[in-house]
User: Fold this.
Amino acid sequence: MILGPVFFYLGVLCEKSKPNWFIGIRTPWTLSNERVWEKTHRVGGKLFKIAGVLTLLGIFFKKWSFLFVVLPVLAAVLFAVVYSYVAYQKETKKATT
Assistant:
């Protein structure tokens, strides 16, 4: 399962990425606010590292290994997108008060 280490490494890269238009969790909210980008990528990086570890655990459960790849990654992506929206809402609310 090469995907486990790949997802873990993507988590490391995600945590260190700077705002850009090409790589990362590029939602409208992360692209419009640098603080939201940092928060989202910090959380997304941790989630992708966890997904990488869970994917590696799929080695021990051959029958369910597909689910050990798909579910953690889907959960990480969905959570990161929702988190970016919530973080953006909090940041804009802070800026207006």
